[in-house]
Amino acid sequence: MAAPQQPHLTTSCHCKAIRLTFPPLREPALECLCSICRRYGALWAYYKPDEVHIEGDAIEAYVWGKKTLSFNRCRKCGCMTHYTVVGDTDPRVAVNCRMLEREEFDRLESEQSDGDE
Predict the structure, then answer these.
(1) What distance in Å separates the CA atoms of residue 98 and residue 81, rounded to the nearest whole number?
(2) How far apart are CA 115 and CA 69, in angstroms?
(3) φ and ψ at residue 108, rounded to 5 degrees
(4) What is the pLDDT of residues 59-109, one digit of tens each?
(5) What is the dihedral of CA 63, 64, 67, 68, to 10 degrees?
(6) What is d(CA 38, CA 8) in angstroms, rounded to the nearest whole number?
């Protein structure tokens, strides 16, 4: 008998122009303390690209430095919703769990990175 499927989580930017649906977290969300994530205040959960469904046409990307990550935010309200890996070296989508509704956010386990770039 197959294990019961847990419901997916859904998050959105403040104005609801971008919406992401993804599986429950398999490990604690990561508060990355690198130079950019620390400034964004993001709390990341990591997935394979085919595990995250992204809806909305208000996505604006920011790519910098080595150009390996594309940070995606809503061009209407400015919320950082997720990042994707540029190229196919390590395909993943990182969902910003700070966009979850308060009840779901309060139940999250999280940990901090060491802050290396």
Answers:
(1) 8
(2) 17
(3) -70, 145
(4) 999 998 888 999 999 999 999 999 999 876 788 999 999 999 999 999 999
(5) -80
(6) 27
